[in-house]
Write a structure and sequence with these properties.
The protein contains four helices and 16 strands. By secondary structure, the chain is mainly β.
Length: 319
């Protein structure tokens, strides 16, 4: 059965996902500015009369928004429908790859085609068993090839997870099952890799470490393999003092998740050192959090294995 399904899935390789798609907007300075502000990217190449767009914005110019795009084919929907019908109903984005062929500049008109490039054999992961589907998008600027964007997802059937009965014997229950009453569950684990491992080592020692470029001295957060300002790959760290203010915030109401207790406030915190990071705002009611409110760094143990940096609203700062 699985071999027959895989053969049917492989038949979609090479079929068009989007044909003659067109960006809804020309490459433009406001979108570049918003992107750079959100990313904290101050590279001078992205401003001024000779500005280019950050290369990683490649896919942003192709997005269709809530109303979607014309030119979308039925092949991708058919492929996902086939997987859904076989029980692989969950989906998670796994990674993307981008290749840049020429800079994008304000005024460029973006067009693109997308193809279902590959469907993997059936794979078993920690999330469950399923198939990796890779879509390749070829992007053009004023008719000239500008870059390639590959996007890979996993369509999977959620794995069973272990729980322990009063006898101590391991039982299996579906991952999607509702938690037992009063069970808080566990927070999702942070993704730790070679680029950010030092940050999490610092958190384990109750230290909030910020990268500092050894080339130009610029501080940066989140941790990156190279400097946005000068491109240097050499860096060291400085320890944040822990003082900051709420630069922006959202109040999370849904979706419900066993490890969280909505509503709660999540802030974009501007540290005294000048960088910004995201963290829970604690110690004040969620509806009393305000932009500009002073906060102080704390480390919150959320379970037996994980501590996270959070920010406590200071007295008199809730407005």
């Amino acid at each position: 059965m699985s071999e027959d399904l895989h053969a049917r899935l492989k038949a979609y390789e090479g079929r068009a996902a989007t044909t003659a798609g067109a960006g809804k907007d020309l490459v433009n300075e406001p979108m570049i500015r918003h992107w750079c502000e959100a990313m904290g990217d101050t590279n001078p190449a992205y401003t001024g009369p000779d500005a280019i767009a950050p290369p990683t914005m490649l896919q942003a110019w192709t997005m269709g928004g809530l109303s979607g795009h014309t030119g979308r084919s039925a092949a991708q929907d058919e492929l996902f429908g086939l997987l859904d019908g076989a029980g692989f109903t969950s989906v998670v984005a796994t990674d993307c790859e981008q290749e840049y062929l020429r800079p994008l500049r304000p005024g460029d008109r973006i067009t693109f085609d997308a193809v279902i490039e590959s469907v993997s054999e059936r794979k078993t992961t920690k999330l469950g068993t399923g198939y990796f589907v890779t879509t390749r998008m070829d992007v053009r600027a004023d008719g000239e090839r500008a870059g390639t964007h590959r996007f890979r997802i996993l369509k999977y059937a959620p794995a069973a997870r272990q729980k322990y009965a009063p006898t101590g014997r391991a039982q299996l229950e579906p991952q999607a099952a509702k938690p037992e009453p009063h069970s808080k569950g566990r927070r999702p684990r942070p993704v730790i890799n070679r680029d950010n491992a030092g940050f999490w080592e610092g958190v384990a020692g109750h230290r909030l470490l910020i990268q500092r470029c050894e080339g130009c001295g610029a501080l940066r957060f989140p941790w990156l393999p190279g400097c946005n300002a000068c491109g240097s790959a050499e860096w060291d760290t400085v320890e944040a003092g822990g003082q900051g203010t709420v630069y922006s915030y959202v109040v999370m109401h849904h979706p419900p998740f066993p490890a969280f207790d909505p509503p709660y406030a999540v802030g974009l915190i501007e540290l005294a050192e000048g960088v910004r990071m995201v963290g829970d705002v604690v110690g004040v009611p969620y509806d009393k959090v305000r932009i500009g409110m002073p906060v102080q760094l704390e480390f919150l143990r959320v379970d037996e294995e994980l501590e996270l940096p959070v920010f406590r609203g200071l007295p008199g700062g809730a407005g």
